[in-house]
């Protein structure tokens, strides 16, 4: 996955992704738009088919990111770095944006840049995602007591 993460790192440094980050910053101020973004990202991930090894694992982690953003916005989880939240929202926005570096309608290759960016985000912000997973598992356990 490191080569995917390296490709994702390159994507994260290009001008288009910087534009996406600025859009994400604006969206983060509007909870309704964040909700729409989460729903759209979830549906796109759910519908994505790929023969890439490990893609299901990437999808599961990205679903966790969606849950993290949702928990942040509903106020139940706030133990996340603001920069991590901004980049997470930007990655989700990039995934749902129909015009990215390689259009998604091109089979397999079109989703490759999305996968690379997801891999980069997961590797760069693994600690934040793991902290949330521990919190999430703890809240489920407490909720069932």
From TrEMBL:
Domain DUF1232: 87-120
Location in the cell: Endomembrane system
Main location: membrane
A GO term from the CC aspect: endomembrane system
UniProt cross-references to Pfam families, sorted A to Z: DUF1232
InterPro entries hit by this protein: DUF1232
Bilayer disposition of the protein: Multi-pass membrane protein
UniProtKB keywords: Membrane, Transmembrane, Transmembrane helix
Full protein name: DUF1232 domain-containing protein
Organism listed in the record: Rufibacter tibetensis
